[in-house]
Amino acid sequence: MSQRDPDRSGRRRRARDPKTYTRLTHPLVRDSRDEPFRRASWDEALDRTARGLAAGRDAFGMFSCARATNEMNYVAQKFARVVMGTHNVDSCNRTCHAPSVAGLSAAFGSGGGTSSYEEVEHSDVIVMWGSNARFAHPIFFQHVLKGIRAGARMYAVDPRRTSTAEWAESWLGPNVGTDIPLAHAVGREIIHAGLVNEAFVARATTGYEEYKALVEPWTLSLAEKVTGVPAAAVRDLAHAYARAERAQLCWTLGITEHHNGTDNVRALINLSLLTGHVGRYGSGLQPLRGQNNVQGGGDMGAIPNRLPGFQDVLDPAVRAKFESAWDTVIQPRHGLTLTEMFEAMDDGTLRAVYCIGENPAQSEADSEQAVRRLRSLDFLVVQDIFLTKTAELADVVLPATAGWAETEGTTTNSERRVQRVRRAVSPPGEAREDIDILCDLATRLGHDWKYADAEAVWNELRSLSPDHHGMTYARLEEHQGIQWPCPSGERLEPTYLHGRLWAEDPARRGPRAPFGLVRHDPPVDLTDEEYPIRLTTGRRLDSYNTGVQSGGYPSPLRQGEWLELCPEDAEHYGVAAGEEVRVCSRRGSLVAPVRVDTALRPGLAFMSFHFPDEVDTNQLTIEANCPIAGTAEFKASAIRIEKVSTGGPALR
Q: What is the pLDDT of residues 561-589, one digit of tens each?
């Protein structure tokens, strides 16, 4: 059945609609955890919040927001570091693209994608690896289509034959969790075919001989056996990518949301180093960010190991600069990641959390465990535009503004482009600007912060971040956005990063990029006789994240959540399209109807996380985290299905 015609099997359409959330318009407090919320004044809510945070000052964590502005994220991380004295600040970047940042930083010293969107239109080969960009990044995919229409060859690497793959010249469908063997086989073939860019490797990289030895065992035949991808398809990809004059390698959560996500990213970066497809116009590495400001949140320092401008918190000179500007002492150590903060809730070392615009009760892997941990806190304050599932657990709820329509400021997209955001409408009721709320709380906790407007916050950031120094609001408007780095107010830098690697002068070339020596490590949650099906997760075109925002708007495409199976598995397990089944993993179970989809192969199932109030997919996923980036393995859970009518296992 085509993804473009999901009803051809004759199954019934779902009548169940996603939950609609009501906009928050006034502060809410509860007098005890056993009592319901009641309406409160702003003074009462802020006083309660200040007391709750002060009591937990030594055990505090800040969850910042990837959908809010750069300016809000800057003030939020400053609040954590100056007011609360901790680097425990993070956001949902940890859930998705933290491995991209870690991998790119390890190779190049910078965590941003290396190319502009426009360059994809002028590339000869585009590799979409673990990315259904047509559904998950439809704006970026329009640039991909322009490239294809201009003659580019696109390769789609994904366990599912996705809607993106329908536009590809070749689809490579690896078994879930075998991206490293596949990348190593591509690298080995490039080496054995004599297609290595030897001049670039010698001049700009380190560790090539070790990498060559590492990938040597991964012959095309062994790769086919482990990954399931035909040897001829692997060879074709290797030759096309290496021979191209310009090539873009793009990835999304199919690469990063694994227990070894950073290693996956390093394996892909290795291919660009082998071929010199980085640091040139039209050739680069593109981690596609799914939210409007997940890149900007990290750039602004809303992560536990970097200060604004992606400056290392362990660098004494960097700390001294910020200490002088902020009149504070900055601790020379990393804070806790979002993942580590949740673990610290278990052992009692994290007792108070300030959550801005995030919904971890439904977005974290093993969601029942996440809810239990949030309930264990002494104090939780949530600042948001809706009463989310996370907000329902809070002691205080503060109504904020929508960053995309009710706020002035900037955001930063996947190509590192900083763009202005302007207020189009006024917030409803008593909802207030995020920055104003943070500053009022800072005052109550002994720090009298005054910002005239968002531009004043931005100018403070510009004074501290060389990469943003040349980006005044006036220049951002003049150029309709500017990519970082932009250290000068007089000129613009190239649209691509790391051109230095091609410099003849070693002094200009700077540090060499190391090959990542990473090894295959299969998924943690193994399939077996009891849990024989591999479940992978992803996005759908009609919905957004946990559905809190998108669920309130109708879409002719939206049909709720399904367990998607291939026709062979549906027949094997004796289930029909539209039939409800119980889906069980080693962590939990849920009931969902079946959808039959030929995009899948036997043994592979698919679900999204957009409808957790009806079908909470993250009850099934596993909190097996990347040790470097902290991202969980959302893409590889082991499940079984049971007949709801009998309560027993489906036929095998």
A: 999 999 999 999 999 999 999 999 999 99
Please tell me the total number of residues recorded for the chain in this structure.
Answer: 652
Report whether 234 contacts 114 (CB < 8 A): no
Show the tokens assigned to 98: 């933290």
Scan for tokens 């799914």, then name that residue: 290
Residue 432 is classified by DSSP as B
Distance CA 605, CA 534 (A): 6
* Alpha-carbon gap, residue 304 to 294, rounded angstroms: 15
Q: HSE (CB half, 13 Å, CA atoms) of 88? A: 26
pTM value surpassing 0.90: yes
pLDDT per residue over 425-479, tens digit each? 999 999 999 999 999 999 999 999 999 999 999 999 999 999 999 999 999 999 9
> CA–CA separation, 241 vs 71, rounded Å?
39
Do residues 263 and 521 lie in contact, with contact meaning Cβ atoms separated by under 8 Å?
Answer: yes
d(CA 120, CA 114): 12
Q: How many CB atoms lie within 10 A of CB 332?
A: 11
- CA atoms lying within 13 Å on the CB side of residue 304: 25
305: left (phi over 0), alpha (psi -120 to 50) or beta: alpha
The two structure tokens encoding residue 165? 């793959």
- Tell me how far apart the alpha carbons of residues 359 and 345 are, in angstroms, rounded to a whole number: 16
Strands annotated E in 385-522: 396-399, 409-412, 417-421, 482-483, 513-514
Instruction: Please give the Cα distance from 649 to 652 (Å, whole number).
Output: 8
